Amino acid sequence: MSIALFTADLRLYDNPVLTAALRSAPRVVPLFVVDSGIAAAGFAVPNRAAFLADCLAALDEGLRARGGRLVVRSGEVVAETSRLAAATGAGEVHIAAGVSGYALRREERLRSALAADGRLLRVHDAVVTAVPPGAVLPAGKDHYAVFTPYFRRWSAEPLRPVLPAPRAVRLPEADSEPLPAAAALARGTASPGLPRGGEGEGRRRLAAWRRGGLAHYADRHDDLARDATSRLSPHLPFGSLSPVELVASARERAAAGCAGATAFVRQLAWRDFHHQMLAARPQAAHRDYRPRHDRRRRAPGELAAWRSGLTGYPLVDAAMRQLAHEGWMHNRARLIAASFLTKTLYLDWRDGARHFLDLLVDGDVADNQLNWQWVAGTGSDTRPHRVLNPLVQADRFDPGGAYVRRWVPELAAVPGRAVHRPWRLPARERARLDYPEPVVSLEEGLTRFRQARGLT
Q: What CA–CA distance (Å, rounded) separates 272 from 69?
């Protein structure tokens, strides 16, 4: 008897955890524990709860089609898993390797608890990431701190084979709680435009992406109005799609000369890069990876304006409103919104990262926190003092203003590029707009930031 403990791998296709558990014993308990520690830490939020509920329902449906079902327990993961192992006589528990401090502590406690009862914990790499965090290392160091050399080594690393979904799952007698609804996982209401979760939905999106958008990704992925990204990112933190499968299939297309696939592989490598950084430096989830001795401002009103999409800079506001409505934001918009908060307003990146994690359905501690640090200049960016001017970014990536008009309806009637600079409109036209003045001038923000960093 064995247990496959699902965490961030809520799928049947290409799942080494489930495959190994099925190979190790004739009967397997597919287990998911609704972790009370997640709620206690404040990470049980409505958007990810809704997506998680979809993923669990899809996983259970897939297991039932193969003769099994998902066993659900609620509480502390180590205690619930140990209790189930004892009740079923399972000799092994299989789990995907994690990288956060929380996941690593959970793994050690589970190993100790099982060992005390004569049971084994089997931890599997290349489940949550395509390349395990410690698989490629620079000479004499425990991780890569710069992306480009990491990407060269990562690109040469062979992937494990992509595994088929199991044909059958035989389950022993095991009590289960009902599948949780979103409302039982987190308080609050999910964003109205939230995407659906689950492996089936992820695989449908993946198939459509391979047929269509992938080929054009290199040319279009920064085009805000076109929205030509894959929209697969929510499926990676939950594991309803396999990063190994995504990289392997994209590499095949890239080898055939598809420039879009080459660019897409690079983005997937960024995710692995951040995971290997967090695995080596778990404290980077809440501390500066590279301290710049910043003395960040405290400006609650400006922070509230940024969160609400009322900064007076239309592109920044469009990004924040997309986040509120969809629980997702275009990657280019994330960079612009984060730069505005951390450098133009000179507020703490942790405040922005927290807001993103409260809303992003693809919120992942490694990717979120280390992307925020990259923008703030305390992370891996080799140009830590760069500032993304939202007007320059708007002219380049939303030249016609379609993205802004979609998310800032107050400005829908403003023609052309003027939509990005409403404060320049004639006074009579400006007075008709229910839209705020800029919270700060870009010149003032840039000067303040450069002085704070000792660049002037």
A: 31
- The residue whose two tokens read 């609650």 is 300
Specify the pairing of strand 28-35 against strand 92-96: unpaired
Q: In what order do the strands lie in the sheet with 2-6?
A: 71-75, 28-35, 2-6, 92-96, 120-124
Which amino acid appears at position 177 of this protein?
E
Distance CA 107, CA 86 (A): 18
The structure's pTM equals 0.96
How would residue 456 be classed by pLDDT, with cut points 50, 70 and 90? Answer: confident
Measured distance CA(306)–CA(324) in Å, rounded = 12
Q: Which residues are within 8 A (CB) of 93 and not within 5 positions of it... i.e. 6 or more apart?
A: 2, 3, 5, 81, 85, 110, 114, 119, 120, 121, 122
DSSP 3-state of 5: strand
At residue 449's C-alpha, the angle toward residues 444 and 451, to 5°, is 95
3-state secondary structure 358-410: HHCCCCCHHHHHHHHHHHHCCCCCCCCCCCCCHHHHHHHHCCCCHHHHHHCHH
Task: Tell me the DSSP string of 186-243.
Answer: -SS---TTPPP-SHHHHHHHHHHHHHTGGGGHHHHTT-TTTT-S---TTHHHHTSS-H
The pLDDT tens digits for 51-73 are: 999 999 999 999 999 999 999 99
Q: What is the pLDDT of residues 68-95, one digit of tens each?
A: 999 999 999 999 999 999 999 999 999 9
Contact 160, 17 (CB under 8 A): no
DSSP letter for 343, please.
Answer: I
